UniProtKB/TrEMBL annotation:
Catalyzes the transfer of a methyl group from 5-methyltetrahydrofolate to homocysteine resulting in methionine formation. InterPro entries: Cbl-indep_Met_Synth_N, Cobalamin-indep_Met_synthase, Met_Synth_C/arc, UROD/MetE-like_sf. It comes from Kineococcus radiotolerans. PANTHER family: 5-METHYLTETRAHYDROPTEROYLTRIGLUTAMATE--HOMOCYSTEINE METHYLTRANSFERASE (PTHR30519). L-homocysteine binds at I447, G448, S449, D615. Residues 442-764 form the Cobalamin-independent methionine synthase MetE C-terminal/archaeal domain. One of its GO terms (molecular function) is zinc ion binding. Binds 2 Zn(2+) ions per subunit. Coiled coil: none annotated. This is 5-methyltetrahydropteroyltriglutamate--homocysteine S-methyltransferase.
């Protein structure tokens, strides 16, 4: 490690890793399906990595100063760290080679499970729509630097002429995000293993140095999250000790420690007090340190370009903020607030978008260009005056554009009264719904979607291209709905859904039919593993021009005597899984979406649909990372759901669905939604949520998921029955519903049919075990 400071003036903390045309997704799925071997898959992934590095260089990040991050992952960066330090659960020990490496097949097995071996639990990455795999750490987990895939990927780029900056999940965050492995003593916390883990990180840094790395980026986002750090005593001392130790590694690369997604607050001081050379601060969600002297002698990456949304930056304001870092800092580098993992690749590909709207947007490539401009401006603002002026013009144009503000929407919101947010007491509603629906104890249903087959995707693509006319497409959809309804009746499900064959995505489908939204053609963003979504862009005031779901729900009801469940996506989830306007408070935007959904609920009810599910899987996702900011969020998020649903009559059963959440943190908010039935993810975590539900005294219907749909494995009847027995042991049986964890869109029909058959049989088995009054209620 030399003493000379790097030349870089701009960088990004990460970049989309699926490839501009989702090449990595296709390569992995071909491997999983047996259409490709390991060697060809590795070549395909190497091609994506090489293209990424070259693209970043072409956008202005130099090849030889470590400003280009090496942040690729075949599935998940937390899984990468777990494999690198040997934290592979014992049930997957056979996928680890004698040299400690895990090949792509074994890596995929850990992520996706096999047979009776459940995969690692999956949950949300801070307040984003990305999902990470949760490491399982116990007192006996044997940490060591085991798998050098990251080092090999760095060397691969170096051989191609690019000195990159490896990016690794930091040791503190890795353990704070981990869960105690099965069999751990009560009260065991993975963070207690920090000293043991650091030895593996020391060897990792040494390996990177030997390979020629000059900088390594260690991501520590847990330091900005109160939930991640809750209950950890002496965390500041742990952070200080950890980075004192890593900084003492002889011959190591320089260290850039990043704290994205917020402000590290008081934890910046112990981190800055160590000998790490660089700090990357999120100055979009966070703020300039109140004590700038903490930055003395450091290279500071000022994250002034939002890596989490798609709007063009105010470059003049961003430059001013960067200037405040100058002085104590040894060098100021323009950067992104987070990895660009959360935004699409390139807005110039969106030729179908309105040209004016496109001028307001910046995807990953445009954000790289923005930090490059800011880096140049730090040296000579006059040299980039035209770029700074163009940024200001775009923001001014957006403010006055038609549709950004619609007076009729603002007037309707202003006229709302408190009564618009409340239904009758649940006890009254329950009796009305029992009489209307006539369901058995432990009623069975699904979350909504059924497998989106290749035939469905081909038909939708042909209709979109104009190769299939509207009448033929609708006939295709009716045939698909008939098939799904017949399957549910044959399986014996109690409440039927139409399977959503017409929907490309649970948010995009609604965005396409609401004014104020735009959708993209190529705006793919990784959600987890090979799963990608295209978040819509919410740019203006929201209006529902016409009913959205009513025709398909009423058609379904005409095909079965069973209760049919109408399916809507809730206002918070529509916001969370869209790129939302940043020119007004989120709560105002949520209430606009809620009014549109309120009208849809009313139309479904008028059409005779007696069960309506308003999904809010993202309720926990948007929860602010700092406790002090959470009450205001929970107030408007719960309020927007109630605004959407409170117009329903007593006999209309309102369901909601949540997944990938630490439910204990928001259990009061879930209760506050006042839904008649709440279904939640629970299978992969083996019903951990039941303790939270029981403690909260949750009195309405609850459907803890009994079938993990994010794994291809089929749960047995006995496995599901065991989960159900745990549920009825914690919650009164009359409240319990039986359902999968989530929608079935990503699964195949063979596994879906077998799993649902087991689910129905398990429900019948446990129903027969109930005391007679409970079974008859």
């Amino acid at each position: 490690m030399t003493e000379q400071l790097p030349a870089w003036t701009a960088t990004v903390l990460g970049y989309p890793r699926t490839g501009a045309d989702r090449e990595a997704k296709r390569a992995l799925e071909a491997l999983w399906a047996g259409r490709a071997d390991l060697a060809s898959t590795e070549r395909a992934l190497a091609g994506v990595r090489a293209a990424t590095v070259r693209r970043l260089n072409s956008l202005g990040l130099p090849a030889h100063d470590a400003s280009i991050p090496s942040a690729f992952s075949a599935y998940d960066q937390v899984l990468d760290a777990a494999v690198a330090v040997g934290a592979v659960p014992p049930r997957f020990a056979d996928v680890v080679g004698e040299d400690g490496r895990v090949d792509l097949a074994g890596y995929s097995t850990i992520a996706r499970g096999r047979g009776a071996d459940a995969p690692l639990e999956m949950t949300k990455w801070f307040d984003t729509n990305y999902h990470y795999l949760v490491p399982e750490i116990g007192p006996g987990t044997a940490f060591r630097f085991a798998d050098d895939r990251g080092v090999r990927e760095f060397s691969e780029a170096l051989a191609d002429g690019f000195l990159t900056r490896p990016v690794v999940v930091g040791p503190v965050t890795f353990l704070l995000l981990a869960k105690a492995a099965g069999g751990s003593p009560e009260g065991f916390a993975p963070i207690s293993r920090l000293d043991d883990l650091l030895g593996a990180y020391e060897d990792l840094l040494t390996a990177y140095a030997a390979a020629g790395a000059e900088w390594v980026q260690l991501d520590e986002p847990a330091l900005v999250s109160d939930s991640a750090t809750a209950g950890v005593e002496g965390l500041a001392g742990l952070v200080r000790a950890a980075y004192d130790r890593l900084a003492a590694v002889e011959g190591r690369p320089r260290l850039l420690v990043a704290t994205p997604y917020g402000d590290p607050g008081e934890l910046l001081e112990p981190l800055a007090a160590t000998a790490v050379e660089g700090l990357a601060l999120d100055l979009v969600r966070g703020d300039v340190p109140a004590r700038p002297e903490l930055l003395t002698g450091k290279t500071v990456v000022g994250g002034v370009v939002d890596g989490h949304n798609v709007w063009r930056a105010d470059l003049v304001a961003a430059l001013a903020r960067l200037r405040t870092l100058e002085g104590p800092a040894a060098r100021v580098v323009a950067g992104t607030s987070t990895s660009l993992l959360h935004v699409p690749h390139d807005v110039t590909r969106e030729t179908a978008l309105d040209e004016r709207l496109r001028g307001w947007l910046a995807f990953a490539d445009q954000k790289v260009s923005e930090v490059v401009v800011l880096g140049r401006a730090l040296g000579d603002a006059a040299a980039v005056q035209e770029e700074l002026s163009a940024s200001a013009r775009a923001r001014a144009d957006r403010t006055g554009a038609p549709g950004v503000v619609r007076p009729e929407v603002r007037e309707r919101l202003a006229a709302l009264t408190p009564e618009a947010f409340h239904r009758s007491d649940y006890a009254v509603r329950r009796l009305a719904q029992e009489e209307a629906l006539g369901l058995p104890a432990l009623p069975t249903t699904t979350i909504g979607s059924f497998p989106q087959t290749a035939e469905i995707r081909r038909a939708r693509a042909a209709w979109t291209r104009g190769d299939l006319d509207q009448g033929a497409y609708e006939e295709f959809l009716r045939t698909e709905i008939d098939r799904v309804v017949a399957l549910q009746e044959e399986l014996g499900l109690d409440v039927v859904v139409h399977g959503e064959p017409e929907r490309n995505d649970m948010v995009q489908y609604f965005a396409e039919q609401l004014d104020g939204f735009a959708v993209t053609a190529h705006g793919w963003v990784q959600s987890y593993g090979s799963r990608c979504v295209r978040p819509p862009i919410l740019w203006g005031d929201v209006v529902r021009p016409a009913p959205i779901t009513v025709p398909w729900s009423t058609y379904t009801a005409s095909r079965t005597p069973k209760p049919v469940k109408g399916m809507l996506t809730g206002p918070v989830t529509i916001l969370a899984w869209s790129f939302v306007r940043d020119d007004q408070p989120l709560g105002d935007t949520a209430r606009q979406v809620a009014l549109a959904l309120r009208d849809e609920v009313a139309d479904l009810e008028a059409a005779g649909i007696g069960v309506v599910q308003v999904d809010e899987p993202a309720l926990r996702e948007l929860l602010p990372l700092r406790t002090q900011d959470q009450p205001a969020y929970l107030d408007w998020s719960v309020g927007s759901f109630r605004l959407a649903t409170a117009g329903a009559g007593d006999a209309t059963q309102i369901h909601t669905h949540l997944c990938y959440s630490e439910f204990g943190e928001v259990i009061d908010a879930i209760d506050g939604l006042d839904a008649d039935v709440t279904s939640i993810e629970a299978a992969r975590s083996r019903m951990e949520v039941l303790d939270d539900i029981a403690r909260a005294g949750f009195a309405r219907g609850i459907g803890p998921g009994v079938y993990d749909i994010h794994s291809p494995r089929v749960p047995s009847t006995e496995e599901i029955a065991g989960l159900l027995r745990a549920a009825v042991a914690s919650v009164p049986a009359r409240q319990v519903w039986v359902n999968p964890d989530c929608g079935l869109k990503t699964r195949g029909y063979a596994e879906t049919t077998e799993s649902l058959r087991n689910l129905v049989e398990a429900a019948r088995t446990v129903r027969a075990e109930l005391p007679v009054p409970a079974a008859a209620s």
